[in-house]
Amino acid sequence: MAVRITGVKKGSPAARCGIRAGDMLLKIGSKDIADVLDYMYYSAEGRIRLTLKRGDKFLILTVRKGEYDDTGLEFETFLMDKKQSCRNKCVFCFIDQMPRGMRETLYFKDDDARLSFLQGNYVTLTNLTQRDIDRIIEMKLGINVSVHTTNPELRCRMMNNRFAGEKLGYLRQMADGGISMNCQIVLCPGLNDGDELRRTLTDLGELMPHINSIAVVPVGLTKFRSGLYPLNLFDAEGAGKNIDLIEEFQQDFLNRYGTRLVYPSDEFYLTAGRPLPCGEYYEDYPQYENGVGMVRSLSDEFSEALENAPPLTEKREIAVATGAAAYGLICEFADNAQRKFPQLTCHVYKIVNVFFGETITVTGLLTARDIIAQLGGKNLGTELLLSDAMIMRNSDLFLDDLRIADVERALDIKIRTVPNDGGKLLCAMLGK
């Protein structure tokens, strides 16, 4: 397979060799190049031989560079070809629960093993072939896997894919090949919880030491589920039962492997009305991006920052808007900050998710329209703080395609977006 070179960085090793935009990259050494993984892996050495096609001519050029240094070639896309899309129709898929009329990119279901290695995305393995697995093992690529269940028949049913069960065999192949894996389980009441969760955790434990961590997260349900598989949310009792089951496995894994390995997401503790564990419980926070330990980390960061914060010398009045799940925590932060700094007035507002439905409580899924509708006429002080999780990465767009400036105009307030970091949140509250 040939990949078109769209640009060559000025002064790069490739430029010094005379490679041009429009050349076709065919091979590095003796290896065919199909995508970014091939390119990165086979171009890592300090001296590489490139086979190119320029028009009707074939060229073989030797490029010298520092080991692991960039060759300087640019391609049409980051992956050098198209993203691989998901072939499943999972009963819990969030994308299937979105309304019509949103921007097209929000409906794309990515299931690309290359992005799992490069960006931490989770993949189901269902669109991988044996050749893909062999390449993962050859290149020693760590991977994140959406397992959900190790019961083959149940996995086929949950994913609506007749191949989903047999693809579980890839887990053993990758473990035997020394591949490091993180796993996630989206838990659905009456489907893969209880005894089925027990089976899944038992099976994954047998793949140690090649499983780094396992996150168990509850299914999220929007109001747009007409015609979809009937699912329910976990209530307090159900959430508590699954926490107990997971903690039973944690103790066993801790005794056998020196790690708790599996973690329930923060949402389970909030739903069950149980206090969140201490920071040490989460070890090195391996599943932070899955909402595991995020609340504890945020709380610890805020407390440490508050203890060491310099005096606030001027009066300051601000507002923070947050989702229902984090509302109590943010209120606690604001109260603690105002006690230490009497000059600070911090209004905290809970935004109910009308767009997706009130069952969606996470801050990152709030829309600009809900913020505008629920904050209109409220006392916002001189600045409104919003989590940057509401904003599309590398842009200023909310999920509903309104921009930060649109919200600022509608509410007549300056907006500051804040990363998910307790120390930075306090700095923003204090105007630092």
Describe what you observe in this structure:
The chain has helices spanning 13-16, 36-42, 113-119, 130-139, 152-159, 169-176, 195-205, 236-257, 266-272, 294-308, 324-340, 368-375, 404-411, 422-430, and strands at residues 3-8, 24-28, 31-32, 47-54, 57-64, 73-75, 122-123, 143-146, 181-187, 211-218, 262-264, 316-323, 344-351, 383-387, 414-418. By secondary structure, the protein is of the alpha/beta class. It has 3 domains: 3-75, Pdz3 Domain; 95-290, pyruvate-formate lyase- activating enzyme, CATH 3.80.30.10; 298-430, Rossmann fold (3-Layer(aba) Sandwich). Strands 1, 2, 3, 4, 5 and 6 form a 6-stranded antiparallel beta sheet that branches. Strands 7-8-9-10-11 form a 5-stranded parallel beta sheet. It has a 4-stranded parallel beta sheet with strand order 13-12-14-15, sandwiched between helices. The chain is globular. The mean pLDDT is 94.
Provide keyphrases for this structure.
432 residues, alpha/beta, 3 domains, 14 helices, 33% helix, globular
